[in-house]
Amino acid sequence: MTAPSLVAVVGNPNCGKSALFNALTGLRQKVANYPGATVERRSGALLGDSDIELIDLPGSYSLTPRSPDEAVTHDVLFGTYATERKPEAIVCVIDATNLSQQLRFAIELRALELPMVIALNMVDLAERERISIDAPRLSQMLGVPVIETVAVRKRGLSELKNEVTAALSGAVQPSKDYGDTIKDRQRAARKIAAEVTLSEGIGHKTTRTLDKILLHPVLGVLILATVLFTMFQAVFAWAEGPMDLIDGGIGVLQSFFTSTLGDGMFLSLLNDGILAGVGAVVVFLPQILMLFLFILMLESTGYMARAAFLMDRLMASAGLNGRAFIPLLSSFACAVPGIMAARSISNKKDRLTTILIAPLMTCSARLPVYTVIISAFIPNETVAGIFGLQGLVMFGLYLMGIASALVVAAVLKRTVAKGPSDTFMLELPKYQTPNLRFVAIGLYERARIFLKRAGTIILASTVILWMFGVWPGPPEGATEPPVIYSLIGIIGGWLEVIFAPIGFNWEISAALVPGMAAREVAIAALGTVYSLQGSEELIEAGLVATLNSLWSLPTALSFLMWYVFAPQCLSTIAVTKRETGGWKWPMFMLAYLFALAYLASFITFQTASAFLG
Amino acid sequence: MDGSQTTAPAHSALGTLSPGAGGTVTTFDGTQHSNAEDMVDRLREMGFAEGLLVEVLHHSPFGRDPIVVRTGGMTVALRRREANLVRVQLA
User: Fold this and answer.
1) ipTM of the complex as predicted
2) Closest chain A residue by Cα to residue B58
3) What pTM, to 2 d.p., does this model score?
């Protein structure tokens, strides 16, 4: 059996390349609208033909790599990428509404002397903008096939496949000599574009009108603030209904097991271990989906690049540029894709700084932690008629993460990541109606990953925690709950010595250990630890009520502060190691974040204790 | 700073213009920039070219920098320092 022919899909950022790739392979893929969205290797069979493997290369403006993800494109196309064969042919995707600019890259690719097929993409948008292009003439002038495509309507796909198949078996048509400099190629591209463009078009009016509002000096900033604020309020308020449903369902299951199974170890494992632990985490699925819904919509509409523009000045004050805002905003969903998206930052020091501060952005795994503590300790009141106090506290925690990230970035740029920072230059893509199918697929992927994690890592760690929580059993004549004499109680007791100055009891200290796997695991662990030692009423009332009756307010506040900073996430550390190529920076990240967490919790706990008596 | 004033020099640096002003790109002038050669290539990659119509559309609410420029079929956000590399014959 021979390996399939490798065909690379290449194009400028924002040319609709990911959407076309998606349509050609049927592979589930995230479609984003800002440069640098495609950072992972994506490949798939061309329209189900296993003899041709398509690979999606990161969008680039030229073969001169300007960032780590563009370097991938360069290295793969030149056959120098370590883990990738050299492609046998290229599908070059060109946005029909921006022909002369994108032709320049196609001309540069022609010089590689690989068989090439051009996908003249988004011709439907071009028609709407009254742009008319003579595709056969373009094909004739470039010496390669040109196929008109509309990715979302699956138009032109089988024709494209036929041409790719033909190109793979046919001889390479030699490229004309267009000159060696970018200026030469620009000139050639404009000449060809002028020749094949039958009608210039009227431009994208909607984008210009929307930008007048969304980039307005006053309105634009208000709208950005409103978007972000609505996002956080929505996460807190709109997800409440479905969360109550899940919570209620878990309670029903627990009572069902209590009434049908006899009292004993198995019931304890099911109720105290699995349901209390995994349930405490699964309940946050609606919130996490709500957050990702917002991020996906911002990406797929084209607004994300505008937000980067509006934020550039603020980012510059921390020694970064507006482009860093995109990975940082993604980090609100999860630091792992955020850190990977930092590949689109060209400057090495800027990229390192962005990676190091990404964990300070409040990721969705902190939501379970924040939500439980806020529900338990912050009254559900309304402030100024419209804002929920709980939502405001949540917003404050987000702000605190952002503010500390900016301060840390400024410090890093003056110390360990010293060096000139890169300038800000970013294409603002046309606004698009979000493709609901792609958003839905993105959400489905998120839910799958989250539930899979709940079913594997979190399930395993709660079961192990439960085992450590019931073993060894209490001695004869024990007066305290059995869990205190267990392994958990012993380890928690040791750690409590370290954590006592920041107000953590032994239960919290013990929960932080499995909580290193992922932040939300700490909540699952607390659920298990308290469920094991608590009375029946406390279990029925749930974790929120339990914490409310057992923790002091200073401890709760200190715990919140801990989670603003603490790097309790193995995936983040792993991805940082991968992206920085060694253990040095992940270790640095761990050290500085734990130091900040301890310091902030210490100050919070001591101050709050002094004031609240 | 109104680009349409008749007293403005015929060749202006793009980065000195206000929203609404624009014209035709004449040259790229890197004498004021430390990393000009590379930067001019990047500007070309973002669609700037001699003879092309450009227009400043917006500026940042904070300190009026960066700016948003339309160049040919593209809309690009960039800082004034780099925009100054682009010389424009005002329309």
Assistant:
1) 0.90
2) A215
3) 0.82
